[in-house]
Backbone:
């Protein structure tokens, strides 16, 4: 890493930008998940894999995942999103995102660097880009966030059957509500105080007859995502010797 | 059989392997990557005193398998689930034939399942009939993320898969174990999605579909389809070891499964040799839902007996000794009856 003060702040901005990139499946940022193995900014010297970085704001980011066989579509999304996020940072020059130790590292790294898209990176193996996959997981993340907020409302004393008539303004302010609003914004769904507290997977307000089943399925979704994230943290930990996870 | 506090449990380990992942059998970097990935699961989720060396993990001797499962592991019957991976391993990772050698030597201990791949077309149908006859197959394990040349996977709803399901019905193969993996065709879709299980289970109501790893990492999708399809079951392989590392999460998985699909369609498995059954069974019998998770009912001894063996015994028509069955069962002598078809 670099020692020059100005450059350090560029690195901070790059890391902050990487913090906005989420694992679409786990709905957590790749920095929180410890998927960022290294960030090298505008310095001359060896980068992890032996490459050299010159001046002029050149950035090389190395990413790592919990397993060699993590699903290539999610891996591609994280590499492509990291490329977009870092490239948008003011003062950044050429950007290289390098996925390490993955069965499809070569295809993904070359595909993102060359702007080939997912189907162009895996010729003959994909029939579309990853938009639909991303939306599917944004919907799951939204349901999980919504369930957290709704559970809090119920714990505060509101009867469950009231929930269909409530709005976001009726929920207690806090990080869970803020996160729910951001997930709504991702999907283009109403996120202001007047918006319904509960929206179904298709974006329409949840009605009383569906309330219990919808919330229950959202809860299972939340448990699945949280459990998967815990497993991935543990696998990353043993794979890279980061300390044993017992969470 | 496992006995604790005067209660005896009949144990069926419904998902085990006898694999060869030694370097000599690794065909390429994918074979090496695959076993290392399994090994990380093993290291991550095992109690510290149960962690093996990588060398121990790559292949187990017959003596070790017998000891781990039956001498120390309390298992009454273990079901081999093959995973061929012939693109990764010279002689395959874990084939019906490899497993069959042990099953034939110890017919009282093992059941050998087969496998098929719809991409093998007509030839594969013929091979399946031969395999069924040779090993008296009652079940198959299907791995949809298996690589085959340029192809990186398949779906249960593929037209050729339906030809194979028809063949299974014809051959008397009634238990279809489904294992989802990280790749599929087309690669842009979610490979772990279990929607194709829903399609197949609806189209073949006489077959039982046991979704391994209870659909994880898509527990919600699995629960949703299993609630609607009476012939869909959940196998606990990979979910079991959370009982040690993350017991609250384990409680939530079991609680959700009991809520959505009930106590009759959940089956125990160690996923040997990723984990050994001894500690999983001991902990499961001792396990209870934490009191603050008030939305879940406590696990009864009856539920534990069903999960640990009686449910799988029903699927495979395994004769359970009378004293290990449940008394006053409402649906006949649990474990001794043929599979009820939906």
Residues:
């Amino acid at each position: 890493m670099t020692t020059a003060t100005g450059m350090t702040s560029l690195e901070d901005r790059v890391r902050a930008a990487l913090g906005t990139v989420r694992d679409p499946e786990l709905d957590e940022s790749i920095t929180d998940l410890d998927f960022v193995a290294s960030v090298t900014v505008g310095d001359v010297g060896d980068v992890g894999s032996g490459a050299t970085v010159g001046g002029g704001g050149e950035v090389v980011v190395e990413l790592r995942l919990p397993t060699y066989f993590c699903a290539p579509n999610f891996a591609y999304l994280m590499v492509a999103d990291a490329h977009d996020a870092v490239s948008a940072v003011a003062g950044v020059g050429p950007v290289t995102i390098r996925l390490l130790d993955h069965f499809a590292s070569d295809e993904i790294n070359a595909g993102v660097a060359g702007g080939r898209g997912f189907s162009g990176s895996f010729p003959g193996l994909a029939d579309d880009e990853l938009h639909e996959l991303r939306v599917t997981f944004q919907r799951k993340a939204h349901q999980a966030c919504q369930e957290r907020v709704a559970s809090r409302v119920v714990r505060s004393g509101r009867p469950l059957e009231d929930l269909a008539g409530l709005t976001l303004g009726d929920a207690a302010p806090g990080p869970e509500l803020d996160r729910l609003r951001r997930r709504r914004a991702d999907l283009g769904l109403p996120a202001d105080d007047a918006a319904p507290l509960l929206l179904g997977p298709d974006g329409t307000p949840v009605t009383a007859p569906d309330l219990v089943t919808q919330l229950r399925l959202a809860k299972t979704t939340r448990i699945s995502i949280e459990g998967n994230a815990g497993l991935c943290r543990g696998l990353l930990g043993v794979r890279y010797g980061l300390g044993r996870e017992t969470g | 059989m496992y006995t604790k506090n005067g209660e005896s449990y009949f144990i069926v380990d419904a998902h085990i392997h006898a694999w060869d992942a030694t370097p000599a059998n690794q065909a390429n970097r994918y074979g090496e990557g695959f076993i290392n990935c399994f090994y990380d699961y093993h290291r991550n989720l095992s109690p510290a005193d149960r962690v093996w060396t990588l060398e121990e993990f790559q292949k187990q001797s017959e003596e070790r398998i017998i000891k781990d499962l039956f001498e120390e592991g309390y298992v009454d019957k273990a079901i081999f689930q093959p995973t061929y991976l012939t693109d990764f391993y010279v002689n395959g990772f874990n084939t019906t034939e490899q497993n069959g050698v042990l099953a034939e030597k110890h017919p009282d201990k093992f059941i050998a399942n087969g496998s098929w791949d719809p991409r093998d077309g007509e030839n594969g149908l013929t091979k399946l009939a031969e395999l069924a006859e040779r090993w008296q197959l009652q079940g198959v394990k299907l791995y949809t993320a298996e690589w085959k040349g340029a192809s990186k996977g398949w779906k249960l709803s593929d037209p050729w898969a339906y030809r194979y399901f028809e063949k299974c019905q014809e051959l008397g193969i009634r238990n279809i174990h489904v294992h989802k993996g990280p790749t599929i065709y087309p690669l842009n879709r979610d490979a772990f999605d279990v929607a194709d299980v829903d399609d197949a289970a609806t189209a073949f109501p006489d077959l039982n579909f046991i979704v391994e790893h209870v659909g994880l990492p898509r527990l919600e999708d699995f629960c949703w389809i299993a609630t609607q399809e009476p012939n869909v079951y959940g196998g606990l392989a990979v979910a079991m070891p959370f009982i040690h590392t993350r017991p609250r999460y384990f409680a939530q998985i079991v609680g959700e499964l009991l809520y959505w699909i009930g106590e009759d369609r959940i089956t125990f498995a160690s996923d040997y040799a990723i984990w050994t059954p001894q500690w999983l069974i001991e902990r499961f019998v001792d396990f209870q839902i934490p009191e603050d998770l008030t939305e879940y009912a406590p696990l009864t001894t009856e539920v534990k007996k069903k999960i640990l063996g009686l449910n799988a015994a029903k699927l495979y028509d395994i004769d359970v000794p009378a004293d290990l069955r449940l008394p006053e069962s409402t649906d006949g002598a649990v474990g001794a009856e043929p599979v009820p078809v939906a």
Summary: The interface with chain A takes residues 29-30, 33-34, 36-37, 40-41, 43-45, 48, 150, 152, 181-183, 185-192, 216-220, 223-224, 242, 245-246, 249, 252-253, 256, 259-260 of chain B (CB under 8 Å).
